[in-house]
Specification:
about 20% strand; six-stranded mixed β-sheet; four-stranded antiparallel β-sheet; alpha/beta; Rossmann fold
Length: about 270
Amino acid sequence: MIILGFLSLKDVSLVYPGQKNGEPSLQNINLEIEEGEFIAVVGPSGGGKSSTISLLAGLVEPTTGQILLKGKPITGPGLDRAVVFQDYSLFPWMTALENIYFALKQVGNVSREKAKKFLDIVGLGEAATKYPGELSGGMRQRVAIARAFALGAPIYLMDEPFGAVDAKNRIYLQDLLIRLWQETGVKKTVFLVTHDIDEALYLADRIVVFTTSPGRIRKVIQVPFKRPRNRIPLIQDQSYIQLRNELLSLLQSEIIEELQKVEGGAGI
């Protein structure tokens, strides 16, 4: 059964210490995320998307408001939330297998067999003994994703995880993520930050559009396309094209407003 309000952001604002003029990075964020839901977040750079990841991960605390998980405040990092960053975050002195095995030891689930199983799932079983420096960018990110899903956390926080890979690997990793999200036991809750509108439309149940700084939620859009999604017919569908254009229009208006702020401040 879906639990409404599984993960909640209530009137959340964030001001980093020493921030110029005390201007917030995030302002009055309200969002209810359902258990097992796939959320994608898009918006201009500097709009607080990555800061939201840090808040949900418990790496920073909100200046005002609350972040609740199952009705209880998040007060710090926890094993119930796995984080995947753009820069892979692998230990360079450990092999691919050791990177996953080390993570499993932190949750008490010590099993090299399980670590190897997840490497096999992401198609890297033969690379188990290779170090991150011996792997391509796409392969390193596959190890990072395998490590995150091996932990079995109910929530996955992903900050532009495919931003540093080429287009071919990006498509592969998107499909891999959907497969892991749907097939590894209980469906996980995913909060994905991306700059790629097509990625958001292909992956998400809902898309949250952020404004420029200070970051606020401009609009939340329900993605209407049934799963499983077939990429080629999907991008040719008229409703997909219309929704994509709506998102582009929202982001373009944010960029224009930001330019007007800059020009006004410069007295142009």
